[in-house]
Amino acid sequence: MEYSENTTATTAMATAEHSPSAVSPTSSSSPPSSPPSPPPVILSPCAACKILRRRCVEKCVLAPYFPPTEPLKFTIAHRVFGASNIIKLLQELPEAQRADAVNSMVYEANARLRDPVYGCAGAICQLQNQISELQAELAKAQAEILNMQCQNANLFELIGKQMAADADRQPQTLPSVHENTTFFFDESILGVAWEPLWT
């Protein structure tokens, strides 16, 4: 009987320790958990290293100018100039001029693919011919405008001289009929005797 009472007391104490009401207020106020750390950023290789199938290092000379979102840009330049020549050229230039050099290489590569013989020089020559033709047309139009202005000036001068000559040849104005004019009725001309209206 005494053994069963001790067992019951021990069980009651263990239940009280694990019940939520028995937890002390100090233990419930646990410090806030730290925010989860952000996932590690995975940098994708640049378009050049991806096409060349090599590892893109941290200080890749091609990465700033051939981002992974523009693979066609490096493909065109690589097809004409080659990756080794592009890398060599960029390494020889200061960083301030590398972006312009890459744009020039891509433009030249596009022109070379369109015109394998002349490339960019062919496009420049064609544009220069168009400029020369437009300049000739502009000069012709300006000459025609100047000629028309001279003709108009001569015409106005001739019209002014003609009007002055007409004004000199115009006779003196005759006096008006209604000024100082007396009318006479000749009975012989009328053929009837003049009779007063009243007698």
Automatic annotation (TrEMBL):
UniProt keyword annotation of Transmembrane helix present: no
> Region Disordered: which residues?
1-38
User: Which residues constitute the signal peptide according to the record?
Assistant: none
- The LOB domain extends over 44-145
Q: Does Coiled coil count among this protein's keywords?
A: yes
Q: Which UniProt keywords apply?
A: Coiled coil
Q: Where is the composition biased (Low complexity)?
A: 7-31
Q: Which Pfam families match?
A: LOB
Residue ranges of coiled coil: 124-158
| Superkingdom to which the source organism belongs | Eukaryota
Family membership: Belongs to the LOB domain-containing protein family.
Put simply, this protein is called LOB domain-containing protein 1
The major lineage groups are:
Eukaryota, Viridiplantae, Streptophyta, Embryophyta, Tracheophyta
